[in-house]
Design goal:
Layout: E1 2-10, H1 18-30, E2 34-36, H2 54-72, E3 77-86, E4 89-98, E5 101-107, H3 119-122, E6 133-135, E7 138-142, H4 151-159, E8 164-169, H5 176-189, E9 192-200, E10 209-210, E11 214-216, E12 222-225, E13 232-237, H6 239-246
Helix pairs in contact: 4-5
């Protein structure tokens, strides 16, 4: 059995701040094997409006690079994402820190394009693929925020044997779509689905992030939520339960050619 932790962390988070100490303490009390953070967790949310700003993008990427060591000290394995500069854009890079060692996992491919979330104008993937990786002994897939809305991606990760789908996100206060998408991802993949989110706004202006980290088991039963007075949630991940779910309806169903 492996324990994993979902969180809701404040917009504008900086290593060494009082907010950071509170976040670190909450994780430390739960002592998970795997910590799943929100999407690009450090600094204020940048892609609110267009046009793309190269200088600000590079500064945001550098802030995340400088924060990796402290992030890796929070748990034996950490799954997160960060902005990295590639040519004239950013890539949103999911990664794992396992015993402090950095490993690439995935570049985000699906982006919103609206006020508050103008990611399509700020980001582009530079590495293809949606692949699973072994982290803390589990087969893990990552869907970054909006990618959770496309259940074919979760189904494909399930067919690669995912025990856990980690979903770092930066979403608003409405939770209905996100919880439905999380449950559906569990249904079609036969995997645990755990998601972490930003909360609040560093400058008190839109977008206002909604928090609401959540977890579903491989049968899409709710396994818990984060909230203001409980910003970290620990869940036990049973790989045998995920394997059993993959032999159950509807995960076992395969398309027939004709």
């Amino acid at each position: 059995m492996v324990t994993a932790c979902a969180v809701e962390w404040p917009d504008g988070l900086v290593v060494g701040s009082e907010q950071w100490r509170c976040c670190a303490d909450a994780v430390s009390r739960l002592a998970p094997d795997i910590l799943i953070t929100n999407e690009m967790p450090f600094g204020a949310w940048l892609p609110k409006t267009l046009p793309y700003d190269q200088a600000r993008a590079e500064a945001w990427a550098e802030l995340h690079a400088q924060s990796l060591t402290a992030l890796g000290e929070l748990a034996p394995a950490v799954i997160s994402s960060r902005p990295v500069v590639h040519g004239g854009r950013l890539a949103n890079e999911a990664f794992a820190l396992e015993n402090g060692v950095y490993r690439f996992l995935h570049h985000k491919h699906l982006f919103p394009a609206e006020e508050g979330w103008q990611e399509d104008g700020w980001f582009a993937p530079s590495i293809p693929g949606f692949d699973t990786n072994v982290i803390a002994g589990l087969t893990v897939g990552v869907l970054l925020c909006t990618e959770l809305m496309f259940p074919e991606r979760a189904r494909a990760l399930g067919r690669q044997g995912a025990h856990l789908i980690a979903v770092p996100r930066a979403s608003g206060r409405s939770m209905s779509y996100w919880r439905t998408a999380g449950a559906m991802a569990a249904i079609v993949s036969g995997a645990y689905v755990m998601s972490s989110n930003r909360v609040g706004s560093a400058y008190g202006e839109p977008p206002i992030f909604g928090g609401g980290g959540f977890a579903f088991d491989p049968s899409a039963n709710p396994a818990g939520d984060t909230r203001q007075d409980q910003p970290a949630l620990r869940v036990s991940i049973d790989p045998d339960a995920a394997e059993a779910a993959k032999a159950s309806y509807p995960v076992y169903v395969r398309e027939r050619d004709f």
